[in-house]
Amino acid sequence: MFINSFGSLNAANMDFSIDVFLRQSWHDPRLVLPGPRERVAITNPQMLARLWKPDTYFSNMKDGDIHRVSMPNVLYRIYKTGDVLYSMRLTLRLSCHMEFREYPLDSQVCGVHVTSYANTDDLVRYRWLADRPIDLPEALEIAQFDLLGFSANETSHVYVTGNFSGLLAEFKLRRQSGYHVLQTYVPTVLIVIVSWVSFWLDPNAVPGRVTLGVTTLLTLTTLASGIRASLPPVSYVKAIDVWIGTCMILVFSALMEFTVVNWLFNKKVTHHGQSSFKIRKSVSFFTIL
C-alpha cells in the first residue's frame, strides 16, 4: 500500500480521507505466460472483468472512489511465472474513533482496515509485503497534524458467516499546537487581561465597567461556542473545556469584584453623609440656643 496523500481529519464526523495506491499480488498457475514474454498488462476492460480478482474491501470505509481520469487508474499485470500484480488508485473516507480528553494537545490513532467480503480465510489469506508493507512519500504533509509513526498488522475477523483474514494499517498522528495557540489561547488570554482593566477604572464609572465586564464575558462565550461546534458532543471533560472554564471564572470574578467594590463604596458614602447630617443638625441646635 502506497500512501499518496492524507486529507484533513474531521473531528466533528470522526473520519479522515486518504489517497492510496492499493497493490495486491498473488500467484495463479493458470496464468503462466508461454513464450519469451516476461510480463503482460491487461488493459482491455472486457478481458479484465473476466479475470479473477480478490473481493477486497475496507471495513471502516464511509465513502470511496476509484480514479477514472483520464482513464480508470487500474493496473492488472501478469508475469511469466504466473504471479499477478493488481493495483488501483483509491480515494477513501474512513471512520476513525478519536479521543478528545487532551484536545487540542491530543494524539490520535487512525487505521485502514482491509479484509475480504465473501472469501473466508481458508480461501483467501491476506499478508503484508515483508520488507515494505506501507510506502510513504518523503514530503508527506497532513493539515494540523504530524505523523509520528505507523504500524502494519495482520488481523482475523470472526463473523456468523465465517472467519475472515484481514490487514490493519494504523497511523499515529499528533495535533499541531500552533493553530490553536493563535486562534484559542492568545485570544482568551487577551480577553481576560482586558476584563482586568476595570480594576483601574473609577468605581463611579458604573456604565463603563459593567459594559466592559459583560462584553468580555459574551466574547469569551462566543469563542467557546465556536470551539464546541468543531467537535462532536462527548460526555467527558476536555482540556479545552477546563481552559475556557477557567477564563470564564476569571472574567466573571472581575465583574463580581466591581459589584462588591461599588456596593462598599456606596455604603461608605451613605454612612459619611448620615454622620455629616447629624453633626450639622447638632450645630444648628446649639446656635439657636
TrEMBL record:
Swiss-Prot/TrEMBL keywords: Cell membrane, Ion channel, Ion transport, Membrane, Receptor, Signal, Transmembrane, Transmembrane helix, Transport
Subcellular location(s) of the protein: Cell membrane; Membrane
Start and end residues of each Neurotransmitter-gated ion-channel ligand-binding domain: 1-176
Organism lineage string: Eukaryota, Metazoa, Ecdysozoa, Arthropoda, Crustacea
Neurotransmitter-gated ion-channel transmembrane domain span: 184-276
GO cellular component, as recorded: plasma membrane
Short name of one Pfam family: Neur_chan_memb
Designated name of the protein: Putative glycine receptor subunit alpha-2-like
Keyword GTP-binding: no
Family that this chain belongs to: Belongs to the ligand-gated ion channel (TC 1.A.9) family.
SUPFAM superfamilies recorded: Neurotransmitter-gated ion-channel transmembrane pore (SSF90112), Nicotinic receptor ligand binding domain-like (SSF63712)
Top-level taxon of origin: Eukaryota
Residues that span the membrane, as ranges: 182-201, 242-265
GO molecular function: chloride channel activity; extracellular ligand-gated monoatomic ion channel activity; ligand-gated monoatomic anion channel activity; transmembrane signaling receptor activity
Membrane topology designation: Multi-pass membrane protein
Main location: membrane
